[in-house]
Every structure is written in C-alpha cells, then in structure tokens.
Specification:
The complex is a heterotrimer of chains A (243), B (296) and C (322).
Chain A: E1 11-18, E2 26-33, E3 37-42, H1 49-56, E4 62-69, E5 72-73, H2 79-84, E6 87-90, H3 102-109, H4 117-127, H5 129-132, H6 144-156, E7 162-166, H7 174-189, E8 193-197, H8 201-207, E9 210-215, E10 218-224, H9 225-228, H10 232-239
Parallel strand pairs in A: 3-8, 3-9, 6-7, 7-8
Antiparallel strand pairs in A: 1-2, 1-4, 4-5, 9-10
Chain B: H1 3-35, H2 42-57, H3 63-91, H4 96-118, E1 123-124, E2 134-137, E3 140-143, H5 144-166, H6 168-178, H7 180-185, H8 190-216, E4 218-219, H9 225-238, H10 243-263, H11 269-283
Antiparallel strand pairs in B: 1-4, 2-3
Chain C: H1 2-28, H2 36-51, H3 70-92, H4 98-118, H5 120-123, H6 137-140, H7 145-169, H8 171-181, H9 183-188, H10 193-219, H11 229-242, H12 247-263, H13 275-296, H14 309-321
Helix pairs in contact in C: 1-7, 1-10, 1-11, 1-12, 2-3, 2-10, 3-10, 7-8, 8-10, 11-12, 11-13
Classes of the chains: A alpha/beta (243), B mainly alpha (296), C mainly alpha (322).
C-alpha cells in the first residue's frame, strides 16, 4: 500500500495542474501507485478524471506538477518516450483500430517492440481467451465488451510497468463488467501498477486496492478501497455536498 | 465502325483511363485517409510526374528510368509539400478549411512554377519504339503503351496491397488512418507514417502522370489539374481513406467516361466524371468526411 | 499612365464588388464558396445576352439576344444569379460544415465551366461572346469613356459597400456571425441555420452577378478563360490578405492583390522576362501569398472589428485540437 508513501511507488503524480485552453481542469492532484496495485479514480462527471490520465500522458497540456515512473522524473517527456518507458494508456472511446484485425491491433500495440511481437500477441490471447476466437476478425465486428478487452490487451503489448485505463466498463453488462475487472486483477498480479477511471463506485471499490475521489479537479478523498466502502463522505461528494 | 466495335473500343480505352485514374485516386484516398488533409494540389503531383520523366529524358531514353524519375520528382514534391507547408498548419491546429485553401495555393504555385520554367507550350515526351503498335487482347485492341500503362498500374496496386496488408509500416498506415490518437498512444511514430504516406501518394500520382503523358506523348503544365476532378470523383465515390474502394471506383469512372465519350461529344468526358462525383457527394456526403475511417 | 491607372481602378472596383459578395458568404457566415467566379461568369453572360441584339449573322450563337438597355441587363443578371445561387445553396447547404460546401462549389464551378465552354448554342462555347457596345457610349462618346465608367463602378461599389456594412451591423448580420462561430449553438437557440446561410449565400451570388455584368459591360466580351480557378484564387487571396469579415480589409486586399501585384507587375518590361513568365510569376506569388497569410495572419491585415472573440475562439479551439 503506497497511499502515503511515494518512495515505494512505481507511478507517482505530484501536484499536477492541467487543462485545455482557459482554466485548469485538474488542480493540484497527487497520486502514488505501487507495483501490483490497482488504484481507482472516482468522482462525479466533469471531475477531471479522464483529463488527469491524458495529462499524465501529456495528451493534455500540464501547467505544473511532477510525474515519476520507476524512479525517473518523466515530467518533461513526450508521449512517445513515456510509452517507451513503460506507461500504457487505454482511452475510453475509440480505443481500438476498427479496420484492423484483432491480431493486427495487438501488433500495433507492440509497435515499439524490437522483437517478439508475435509471441507477445500469443500471450495476450492466452490472457484474454475471449479474444482468441476472434483473432482474425476485424475489430469493428467485436462487441463493446470485447473491444474494451482488446483495448486493454493492446495497451499491455509492450509489457508496461504502469497502465492507465479510462472507464473500461462503461456501457457493459454487469457480467462483462466482472470479466473486465477480473482481467485487470490478473494484469495487476503480473506486477503492473494500474490506475483506472471508473463510474461504478461499488464495483470499483470491490476490486481496487486504493481509491482517489476527484471533485471539480481536486482530490477530495483518498484511502484504501475497503475503508471507503460505505463511507458517507464518498456518497455526499457524489451528490454534490461539501463532504 | 459497327456499334459493337465502337463499344468495345471505348471499353478498351476505359480500362486504360481506369488504370491511370486508379493510380492517382488510390494515392489520394490513402493520403487523405492517413493525413486527414484534403489535397487540391494532387493534380500537380501528376503533372510533376510527367515533367519529371521529361527531365530525365534529357539524359536517357530508357523508359524505366524516365518513369522512375517522374515518380521520384512527384514523390519528393509531395513529401516536401507536407514537410515544409502543411505540417506547420497541422501543428498549430489550423482549421481544415485553411489546409484545403493552402493546398489550392500550392496547386497554383506548382503549376505556374512549371509554366515559368517550361512555358505553357506543349512538351514532347519521346515514346519507346513500337509503342503505338496495336495488340489484340481478347475483344480489345490496345497499343503497346496502353499495355505498359495497365501493366504498371497492376504492379503498383499489387505492391501497395502487399505493403498495406502485410508490412508493419502498412498496418501502421491503416492504424493512423483509422484512429490517429490511438496510433500515437500505441507508440506508432505518427509523423513519420504521415511523411512517408505523402511520399507514397506522390510516387503513385507521379506514375499516373508519366502514364497520362505516355498516352499522348506530350504534356502541358495543366495536364494533371485537368485530371484532378476525375481523380477526386473516383476517390470520393470509393470513399476517402479507402484505397481499395478508390480502385473499384476508378474502374467505374474510367469506363463510364470513355464509353459515354464514344456516344456524347468527347469534350464532355470530364463533365460526365464530375457528374458522377456530384451524384456521389449528394447521395453519400459522408464520402468526403472520411467517416469511412471506421470501415476501411 | 493615367489611362492605365483608370483601367486598373475599374478592375479593382468591379472585383471589390465581387469580393464583398464573397465576404458576406465567407467572412460573415463562414461559407467558402469556390464557385464565386462562376457566378461572375454567369452574371456576365446573362447581361450580355440580354443586352446584345439577336445573333443574326454575327457568327456567334447564343440564347435570347434581346437588345435591352444596360440597367435592365444588370438587374436580370443579378436575379438569375440569385435564383441559381438559391438552387445550389438549397442543395449544398443541407449538410453542415464549410468543408463540404467548398468541395461541392468547387465541383460545380468546374462543371459549369465545362458545359459553357463546350455547349455552343448557349453562349457560343469556348470562343465566348463579344461585340457589346459599352453602355451610354452613344451619349458621352468614347474619348473619356473609362473615366465615366470608373465613376459608375465606384458609385455602385459604394452602394454595395454600404449595403454590406448595414447588413453586418443588423440583427441578421449578427445571426450570421453566430452561425459562423458555432453552428450547433445557433441551432440550439432556435435559429434556422439553413435559411440564414441560404440567404447569405444568395446575396453573395447576386452581388457576384452584378460584378460580372459590370465587367462585361466594360470589356464588351467574355469567354470561359475569363473565369477560371485562378480568378477564384485571386479572390481568396484578396479577402484573406485584407481581412475576412472586414469590408475595408476586402477593399485593401483587392487593391493590393489586383492593383499592385497583378496589374502593377505587368509594367515589368518584357526584356526582363516574357509576358508568359510574368503571368506565371504573378500566379506563383499569389499562391505563396495565400499560404503565407493563412499560416501567419489568417485574420488578415485588417482583422474583423466587431468581435475579437472570434480570434479567441479560433485560438482556444486550436489549442484544444493540439
């Protein structure tokens, strides 16, 4: 558990401010995630959760703050270099290449790998049995849940140390939600640090190790997932009270 | 000539036109799909192909070298257009309509650059000996140069197919065309893919240019822009960003224009192609918007 | 020299009228009409066939040939252009986005050009029409005719300018800007976006027709070479250089692009370069100029005054896209 201990964290985000043109959408957010940890990012709509992920990837301009991955200060690194350093990002929407087959999607995920792409893709199909049968089909023919799994698998191709996932269960049936979460747990058990944005609070706290609640761009609550279950403050933050 | 001969002759011409249009339209479709930039200067890339062959011909009459020279000039021009002009617009997030106008400006510049250097008069491209000999192939009669053009088009299209379907770079091109943002976060060097795609589009347009000049053995600085609408018609009917669709559409457009020319005033050739284009735009406006990114 | 200057100013005045019409479409409303020059051509041809006597044995073929007076010819030209503009606009504006309209109008321009230059019975095909007597020339004589015509064009330009300015400041003009800035928001506020755009489009086409009529009445002749995509580019360069949305800017842009760049450089003696090279060089300069303006100062020399927020809006959307 690294909640309060940046020294052992694999991915640490410190005092990050970020936003598009006008003001900051994310304000002074600090997050630390260790190996084998799933941290979930909760909060009402417009809290800046997705923006924070993009800001970490430098897809959204960051105005202040520090980002460290595996002990290296990566604050000034471009997206491409971050990926090469072992940070993977899985967007919520448009997260696969629809015209490419499942295998080709995986191959593109491993674009930066020098060798062993085929073998790694096979490992991914091992890890995601739902995709195996569809491996030669175009991604556009997959169901929503399968797409999200493919998106995860694509992100895992280069064997990242940290994985940022934006709402992997949005729009899925409860059964498929479970499938996605158990995959995330499997991924965690291979040693990856995971930061997930999630809408469904109950399920998220069920599976995650730690949780961060963002409201209007600021961290309003952090803690171990199990401690936050049934926490009234959490509920009131969602309803819009000043917890 | 009896009516069947007229029809067969025009169909024969149609396949030659289709081959030329296909080369240019496939490149245009691929380039628009991957780079998301409309290009009104594509006609000039065709022209540069023709003049490139002319320039190399000052040195050697070797058909292959002349053709490669034309392709190289058009390819480098396309690459440079993107690298030195369009890229800076994209980087600043300029509206797409500015890019469209900028390519119109480029088209005007490049066309008149040739007019400045070579003049507007017709330049003669020496064709290889025996190129006008007729050959009977099935019901059609084609000249040697017709066969060369169709052969070159088939080889080029097959090569492109292999690149797109089976190479890592080709798959990356399709990936960028599908979803540039995701390509970027997958670690694909999007800029390099875009630069090389311009080069490829230029090479194909250049080959088309050499072919156009080859059909008449001559060229003027507007040789490519006269072809632009037909090429756009094929690319849009096929769906922008869908090179294979462009191939099919090019065959249709080529056949329709040549067959109609056999019955209407041949000056209406382009008009017929453009009418196809307008119909396509009205019937499926999405063709222009590369919404087809989702399908390819 | 003075004669040359008068000639250039007449051309600048007429083209400024066309450019103001274009500005109402692009600058006010955000509609990029790449067939603007086509409407100039149509206006010119219609004015000619209204004003010319029947073809008889002139060797030309054309429709009508009514021999009506100049003012009526101009009005009919405007009406025809407005009607054709309404038809084109009604179809093309049905879909959103300037990008779509740009491609459709570009294609329409090419088609009309093709048809007019090939179909001889309409306007005598590629050789075009000629032999129109300048209006009022029987009254004032031809000696100082250009001076008079310059006066006439300037007066008409002033009227068009004032009309465009009133339009810009009117509620209708503000609605057009609202559509340009945010199509969806304007629609959400209950504006009939399609109708607003259509009106602006038709007004612009009618003004283009007016310009065409004035042009042929001056030159007395017109053929399809007179309205090519090069002319469209000149129009674009003038409006972007001067300032989209700003009518003073449009006048300035046309003066610089047409007056200085195009006509001014024609004074270069031929021993330096041939006429052909000169023309090519002008065109190259025009292309480069257009690109440079778009890249470094897309709002033009005189930026639109009414609302600076447009620039801001473009900036923030640009940074969002980046």
């Amino acid at each position: 558990m690294t909640l309060m201990n940046p020294a052992t964290s694999l991915l640490s985000v410190e005092g990050v401010f970020a936003g598009y043109g006008g003001g900051d959408i994310v304000k002074n957010v600090t997050i630390n995630i260790a190996e084998r940890e799933i941290a979930v990012l909760l909060g009402p709509n417009g809290a800046g959760k997705s923006t924070l992920l993009k800001a970490i990837m430098r897809l959204v301009p960051r105005r202040a703050g520090r980002v460290e991955v595996r002990g290296a200060d990566v604050s000034q690194w471009a997206t491409e270099r971050l990926i090469a350093h072992g940070v993977a990002y899985v967007p919520q929407l448009r997260n696969v290449f629809p015209a490419l087959t499942v295998l080709e999607n995986l191959e593109m995920g491993g674009y930066s790998m020098r060798s062993g792409v085929r073998e790694r893709a096979d490992e991914m199909l091992e890890l995601f049995p739902n995709l195996r049968a569809a491996s030669r089909r175009a991604a556009s023919t997959l169901s929503g849940g399968e797409r999200n799994l493919l998106a995860l698998a694509r992100g895992l191709m280069p064997g990242p140390a940290a994985l940022l996932v934006d709402e992997p269960t949005a729009g899925l049936s409860p059964q498929y939600e479970e499938v996605v979460w158990s995959q995330l747990e499997l991924i965690r058990n291979t040693g990856v640090a995971i930061l997930v944005v999630e809408q469904n609070v109950a399920t998220a706290l069920e599976h995650a190790d730690t949780a961060y609640v963002l409201v209007l761009g600021e961290t309003r609550l952090t803690g171990r997932a199990e401690d936050l279950k049934g926490d009234d403050t959490l509920t009131s933050l969602y309803i819009g009270g000043e917890g | 000539m009896d009516s069947l001969t007229v029809l067969l002759t025009s169909i024969g011409f149609g396949f030659v036109t289709a081959a030329i249009v296909a080369l240019a339209a496939i490149g245009l479709s691929l380039q628009i799909g991957v780079t998301n930039v409309p290009n009104f200067a594509h006609g000039e890339l065709i022209t540069f192909g023709a003049y490139g062959a002319l320039i190399v011909q000052f040195v050697t009459d070797n058909v292959l070298l002349d053709t490669l020279g034309g392709m190289a000039l058009a390819g480098v021009t396309a690459w440079a257009m993107n690298r030195f002009v369009l890229q800076s617009f994209v980087k600043r997030g300029a509206p797409r309509i500015y890019l469209l106008i900028a390519t119109a400006g480029l088209s005007f510049f490049l066309q008149n650059l040739l007019a400045f250097i070579f003049g507007e008069r017709t330049q003669v491209l020496q064709l290889p000996a025996g190129s006008s000999t007729g050959y009977h192939v099935g019901p059609f009669v084609w000249t040697g140069i017709d066969l060369l053009i169709m052969g070159a088009a088939i080889v080029a299209v097959a090569a492109l197919y292999v690149v797109l379907q089976f190479t890592k770079f080709g798959k990356a091109q399709r990936a960028v065309s599908n979803n540039p943002e995701l390509a970027r976060v997958s670690g694909i060097p999007v800029n390099r893919v875009i630069n090389l795609t311009w080069l490829i589009a230029g090479l194909l347009a250049g080959l088309a240019g050499v072919a156009v000049a080859g059909t008449t053995g001559s060229m003027v600085p507007t040789i490519g822009s006269d072809f632009l609408l037909v090429v756009f018609a094929a690319a849009i009917v096929g769906g922008l960003g869908r090179p294979y669709g462009a191939l099919v559409a090019a065959v249709i457009v080529g056949l329709v224009t040549e067959v109609s020319a056999a019955y209407l005033n041949s000056a209406y050739k382009t008009t017929v192609a453009v009418a196809i284009l307008v119909l396509a735009i009205l019937i499926r406006p999405n063709g222009i918007f590369t919404v087809s990114r989702e399908i390819t | 020299m003075i004669d040359f200057l008068v000639l250039v100013l007449i051309l600048v005045a007429i083209n400024s009228i066309v450019a103001i019409g274009f500005n109402i479409q692009w600058g006010y409303t955000g509609l990029l009409n790449l067939s603007s020059i086509t409407f100039v051509g149509i206006g010119g041809y219609v004015a000619m066939v209204i004003a010319l006597p029947p073809p008889g044995n002139s060797g030309m073929q054309y429709i009508l040939g009514l021999g009506w007076p100049f003012p009526i010819a101009v009005l009919v030209a405007m009406v025809v252009c407005a009607v054709l503009g309404a038809i084109l606009g009604a179809i093309a504006l049905n879909r959103v986005r300037a990008y779509y309209l740009a491609i459709v109008t570009f294609c329409v321009a090419e088609i009309v050009h093709q048809v007019v230059s090939t179909y001889i019975p309409l306007f005598d095909g590629n050789s075009g029409l000629y032999g129109l007597n300048p209006p009022f020339s029987n009254v004032v004589g031809l000696a100082n005719y250009n001076d008079l015509y310059l006066g006439l064009c300037v007066v008409i330009l002033a009227i068009v300018f004032l009309f465009a300015e009133r339009l810009r400041k009117s509620p209708f003009g503000r609605a057009l800007r609202a559509v340009r800035e945010d199509h969806d928001a304007a629609q959400a506020f209950g504006r009939d976006v399609w109708l607003l755009q259509l009106k602006a489009f038709v007004i612009g086409c009618a003004i283009a027709g007016l310009g065409g009529a004035l042009l042929v009445n001056f030159t007395g002749a017109l053929n399809p070479d007179g309205w090519t995509s090069g002319e469209t580019l000149l129009l674009l360069a003038a409006v972007f250089l001067g300032g989209s949305g700003n009518n003073w800017g449009v006048l300035l842009g046309m003066l610089l692009v047409l007056g200085v760049l195009q006509e001014g450089t024609s004074l270069i003696p031929t021993w330096i370069m041939s006429n052909e090279q000169q023309a090519a060089l002008q065109a190259m300069t025009l292309g480069v100029l257009l690109i440079v303006i778009l890249r470094f100062r897309p709002m033009g020399i005189l930026a639109e005054t009414a609302d600076r927020d447009r620039v801001e809006a473009t900036r923030s959307s640009a940074s969002r896209a980046a």
